[in-house]
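Here we describe the complex-level prediction in full. Unlike the single-chain runs in Section 2.1, the two entities below were treated as one system.
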Amino acid sequence: MDVVTNILTLAGYEGLVFGIVAIGIHLTFRTLSFPDLSVDGTFPLGGAIAAVLISQGANPFLATFIALIGGMGAGLITGLLNTKLRISALLSGIIVMVGLYSVNLRIMGGANEPLLRDITSFDIMARIMPGASKLIVAIVLVVIVVILVIGFLSWFLRTEIGLALRATGDNEEMVRGFGVDTDKTVLIGCAISNGLVALAGALVAQNQGFSDVGMGIGMIVLGLASVIIGEALFRPRGITMVLLAAIGGAFVYRLFIAIVLRLGAAPGDLKLITAVLVIIVLTMPFIRKKLRGDWLPPAKRW
Amino acid sequence: MIGIHMNQTDSILKLRNVTKTFARQTVDEVIALSDITFDVHNQDFVTIIGSNGAGKSTMLNIVAGLYPPDRGGKIYIGENDVTRLIGYKRAGFVGRVWQQPDLGTAGHLTIEENLSLAILRGKRRGLRRAVSKARKELFRKELSLLNLGLEDRLKTPVNTLSGGQRQALSLVMATISKPSILLLDEHVGALDPNTAKTVLELTDKIVEREQMTTVMVTHNMEVALHLGTRLIMMNKGKIVVDIDAERKRRLKVSDLVSAFEQAAGESFDDDSILLSHAEHMK
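The structure predicted for the assembly as a whole is:
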């Protein structure tokens, strides 16, 4: 019983914090139809900014907020490469991701930045909740952040600009026909998405007590896995439900990972396990069609 | 031509020496529009017919701002020179319905969301709620005029509607914010004959009610004769026949066919069928 509770609470925290990543990825991949791979760089960017600012004595909440702004800036660059310089979306993200690796090293002045003796957002939260375990404190703080994120997006995506953004991913030519500058909606979407991913990176760095330049590896695949699992399991309708489904998907994914670890997988195996999981989930509809004997068009390459 | 000069201020759309060349200076070079000068007057309902490659769609695309004309050509909407204005910046002037139902609407969004997007045509979009109570009320009213029951399905995703319903919705979306000119690009071309008839009737009704200045491309000569107040025939990038409302009423499809055959030949100049505005082509 205790083991089960342990796994569930751990998956709860991780599902929430990586759920923020999943929401960010949903915003680009799904809402905008913009396959943005820069998140592998913006996640550690958020961690690096927050860790360096906190270790220099900044207020940890302010540092987390600045990490979010930094991520938005990186997302803006990805969006600009695509909309203004006409580099394909996929390449724009990869270019920013590669460039950010050096940026993150520069920010931290090395491959990592420890936070062990500094006061993080979680430490402040722990002071407000005396007696609560470290994991419960972490969950409460992340729940607050997730509520803020979902609240903001549920509002924003229903505004006139937000609606234009959602329509851009749906039918860009038609949206332009109604006078929307779709370059702008793409830029806004990329900025918010990467801001959220950096926010998650800042939280993860504070909770684990260090920021590391490699902590973003595989973040896209992880986020996509969460998004797809969330869609498959919950079949959400409506903006708020879609966002919640991303969180739910991240939780289920993390639960799966925790169980696999319990069963004896090494942490180093996790990326491969995730990759295989994503392959399975992605090809499910295809395989179902194949078994039915449907006529299938050739593969898409974006 | 005299009429056009006298009514210059009355013109909603003016094309001046508009030429459009694709794949210029390659073996595939195509002159899709060839030195077109053309006026659409206030509340004209122009139907355009012509064979494939005549330049009908190119003309609509150039008016909508999908691409600019070759240098030297000018496009005015009302008093505004929109020649170099990229598509989304002139969207406030131009409403459009495409041939494919899925092109004119956003399939994953609901009916009310699509209409909210449309009602802000060419206007600044802000952080107000997109689907407001007042707007919903307006949408219900506009949709009820279609008699398709869509007014009770505001929260339905558009991709669950039939092609005809989507085209009817596209029509409402194209006209709800009263653009200067409505472009219909074979907008019933992908529908079955019965649905096409319904949508055409709706088109006529909406154009009449909103007093829209309209340019409609069609393949169907019957439709071109039946609908609208003016008929234009295009061939090889030129306007070869331009018939006003009065003459149009007396014309039959067979007249149109022979006009078309003769216009498609080489000898336009001495063609007796070339009516009032034949000077366009010189």
